[in-house]
Amino acid sequence: MELIRGIHNIRDQHHGCVLTIGNFDGVHLGHVEVIKGLLEDAKALNLPSTVMIFEPQPQEFFCKDQAPARLTRLRDKLALLAKLGVERVICVSFNRKFANFAAADFVQQVLIDKLGVKALTVGDDFRFGRGREGDFSLLQALGKGAGMAVKSTESFKKANARVSSTAIRTALKAGDLQLAKTMLGHDYAISGRVIHGWKKGRELGFPTANVALKRQVCPLNGVFAVQAVIAGRTYNGVANVGNKPTFNGTRALLEVHLFDFAQSIYGQFIEVKLKHKLRDEQKFNGLDELVQQIKHDAIAAKQFFTLATTAQSGSL
């Protein structure tokens, strides 16, 4: 998959494509339906399938730390889009200049003149341009004279509910990982490179792999039974997502303790799939109380995986 970083990097060879535009946060099953429409148009017109996304996401730019929690960081989003078969992604830098782009100018200068879009697929609630002045009707009107077909994909529904990033955030905040998975189409996961931490886990007998949560807001916190993927291998473990209140921490962090694991993985990329929530994060009255709770958490996580394995074996 080709990644084009910024509108200024669109070249002549990128003229002529089918396109969809959006945040695609989480790349959930609703997004999958939009991508399906995109791929169908690409095949029918023999043109490359192209997705336009934004960094930061618009609400992150306007609302800063009041923006909704992000489900997927850029690297993971690109990997999921590539897995779906998207050929090109244009990652637009969402800044003040872009935010002030008049909707009609964006359509003419970028979609028509630069990209030569022949088919545009957008969600039914798509809005764009300065002050969100652009909508589906404007796209249709401007596209008609330029040979750009515009279609809207109706909101995909799962279990009689609209699949959306907002609904997934709500499920995650409530600790309902199964509902989130149903809407995402895959386990909710956090990934990144393992960094050096305070080494407190090692001192307490529970060494952890730490990943900084480089997002303005995290969609959940607490202690979870997890599966971590490192260099293609999967390990069971228990993880805390939060700011370590017992140590008066202020930085959001993912701390993963892997069972029967003794390797040094600093600097390596790790994907942590959250399988089951055990409890909320809490502040303890000293290290002894914390250690006892960690032991209980590890036992609970192992029991979860034992029961999951038994249930899976029984269904075969």
TrEMBL record:
Catalyzes the phosphorylation of riboflavin to FMN followed by the adenylation of FMN to FAD. The gene is ribF. It holds the Pfam family Flavokinase. This is Riboflavin biosynthesis protein. Pathway: Cofactor biosynthesis; FAD biosynthesis; FAD from FMN: step 1/1; Cofactor biosynthesis; FMN biosynthesis; FMN from riboflavin (ATP route): step 1/1. Belongs to the ribF family. Residues 183-306 form the Riboflavin kinase domain. It comes from the Bacteria. CDD domains: FAD_synthetase_N. It catalyses: riboflavin + ATP = FMN + ADP + H(+); FMN + ATP + H(+) = FAD + diphosphate. Keywords: ATP-binding, FAD, Flavoprotein, FMN, Kinase, Multifunctional enzyme, Nucleotide-binding, Nucleotidyltransferase, Transferase. The keyword Nucleotide-binding applies. Its EC number is 2.7.1.26, 2.7.7.2. InterPro entries: FAD_synthase (IPR015864), Riboflavin_kinase (IPR023468), Riboflavin_kinase_bac (IPR002606), Riboflavin_kinase_bac/euk (IPR015865), Riboflavin_kinase_dom_sf (IPR023465), Rossmann-like_a/b/a_fold (IPR014729). GO terms for molecular function: FMN adenylyltransferase activity; riboflavin kinase activity. It comes from Pseudoalteromonas qingdaonensis.
